[in-house]
Amino acid sequence: MTGTCSRCRASSPALGESESSGWFVFAHHIQLLARGMDLLYCFLGVRLSTDYITWQSAPRCETLGHPWITNGNESQNRPHIRMPSFITRPLFHFFYKIIRRASPIPPIQRVVQPTSADRQSAFDRLLDSTLAQGPNALIDYHLPYPKVDFLNYICDWRGYVAHGSTLQNFTTLQPVRLSQDSSEFGNRHQIFCSPDGTWALWFAVLDKSKIRVTENGCVRLGHGPGRIKYYHFDLPAESKNNPPFTDGMVYLANAEDFPEHRPYPLLEWFDAEIEEWGSALPVTPLAKLPVKPEDFPYLDKVQYYL
Fold first, then answer.
1. Rounded to a whole number, what is the distance in angstroms from the first to the last CA of the chain?
2. pLDDT per residue over 227-244, tens digit each?
3. What is the pLDDT of residue 22?
4. How far is the C-alpha of 74 from the C-alpha of 91, rounded, in Å?
């Protein structure tokens, strides 16, 4: 699994192969804005949150003698400003469209909203009864709701993470890396997962042995209800007539077992994150869910132009 502009070699079994080159365009366009806001808020002493602005006293800027804005961690080497959502969301969308300008379709977005009471109750009962069986329990799914809704609920609202693979018999997720990645994080020998069920499902049904490369990604924008997930799923043009999809498995795990998060400091300004997490240690899955290509909700939005 990768960052917003993710590229992986076809031989890789990991849930996380990426290329961040598109984000350098993003960085280039907002660099001056970021520096200007740094200086402005340094002098004003304004602390910005994602959803509101408050005037507060802030740690002193050691170089200019004025308050820096921080995210509560005064040990950082540089100030951290998080812009309000009425600025971040349209600005992020604008730059995302620039980065994705080669795509023939608009950005794929999913707004995270609470599920209905009936669905939540059904999802909770199924998940809790499965977890009560012990590690590696197979989820016996017969609910009248799409599996992707179940996975998204588990990750969005129950706080679990997911790893997708076409290999369906794992009892332990091992930190094995068999392919190369353009980023340092993606090249680490670790097991990858995501706090996004849809992205994990993509890797569960994608047969990478049939393709030479893929670009894919998931970026979270904001927190809480109403946060937005940005996706893209791109494949080589020659695979369009023989789509490389197959049956697979989504493995569920505890979020705390994946302490490494893909770094991209500029995204912090937008309260955003590439939702790729990693662990250098083996992880025992809590449960697993068999899936098929038709369970993936964006098959009609996969782009074949690489």
1. 17
2. 999 999 999 999 999 999
3. 52
4. 27
